[in-house]
Specification:
Elements (H helix, E strand, L loop, with lengths): L3 E2 L8 E2 L1 H8 L1 E5 L2 E8 L3 H12 L14 H12 L8 E5 L5 H8 L4 E6 L2 H13 L5 E4 L12 E5 L5 H16 L3 E6 L10 E10 L9 E9 L5
Parallel strand pairs: 5-6, 5-8, 6-7, 8-9
Antiparallel strand pairs: 1-2, 3-4, 9-11, 10-11
Helix pairs in contact: 1-5, 3-4
Length: 231
């Protein structure tokens, strides 16, 4: 479906979400996770401005779908190196962005993989990236945070504790998923709002990051598993 304009001007060339993603990105292996290639942008700020222009809105969130963020890279690396976490299981990738984590799970034998996002461009990017890596990921625009992620056996999330308000919604969701028996794994590059006392460290990596979006060229990214509820 043709549902976006390239620059917001009347009479401008109309692009579908998938065509927009393809026009603004190019495929490349992910640093630190070279087994996977993603359609990524060269310039974060330029794409951010372009997206705001196309949508006619100011103050949009960064285009998470066009980059490999450190938290997701950490989880993807862990899943690729520990396929037993996802093999034969149903997996939910929450706030999936580019689909990097979902793709890693699919590559390591997950029975099914669902990727949830609230950005239509992200869902388009996930579809493109899954196809490019030869895997199947069911992606949809949906906000699942009032639920518990059922029926997923494994819930994965990369870098979701970067804002207080976001953390306040994500943590209860993850705790509900864990309480019903799901394995819950998150990646975090030292964000302020991760409640570390509720998690067990699984691994730590030094991950290359996008300089335009972070404060360093490398970020120490920890992969955490949410502990079972007390009692």
């Amino acid at each position: 479906m043709l549902n976006e304009t390239r620059d917001g001007r009347p009479g401008a060339v109309v692009l579908s979400d998938r065509d927009f993603v393809r026009s603004e990105t190019s495929p490349a292996p992910v640093p630190f996770v070279p087994e996977i290639s993603l359609h990524m942008a060269d310039d974060a700020i330029e794409l951010w401005e372009t997206t705001e222009s196309v949508r006619g809105e100011v103050g949009l969130a960064p285009p998470f779908w066009a980059f490999a963020w450190a938290g997701g890279v950490g989880v993807a690396r862990y899943v690729l190196d520990h396929p037993e976490v996802v093999a034969g299981r149903t997996v939910l990738d929450l706030a999936a962005g580019s689909g990097l984590v979902a793709i890693a799970a699919a590559m390591r034998g997950a029975r099914s993989v669902r990727a949830a996002e609230i950005d239509a461009y992200a869902v388009a990017a996930i579809g493109i990236n899954a196809e490019a890596n030869g895997v199947r990921v069911a992606a949809a625009v949906e906000d699942l945070l009032d639920g518990d992620g059922a029926p997923a056996d494994v819930v994965l999330a990369g870098d979701v504790f970067y804002e207080r308000a976001m953390a306040a919604r994500f943590l209860p969701f993850l705790e509900r998923a864990r309480a019903r028996g799901a394995v819950v794994i998150v990646g975090d590059p030292g964000r302020a709002y991760l409640p570390r006392g509720r998690f067990t460290e699984l691994a730590a990596y030094r991950v290359p990051v996008v300089a335009d979006l972070e404060d360093a060229a490398l970020k120490t990214t920890t992969v955490w598993e949410l502990a079972a509820p007390a009692g």
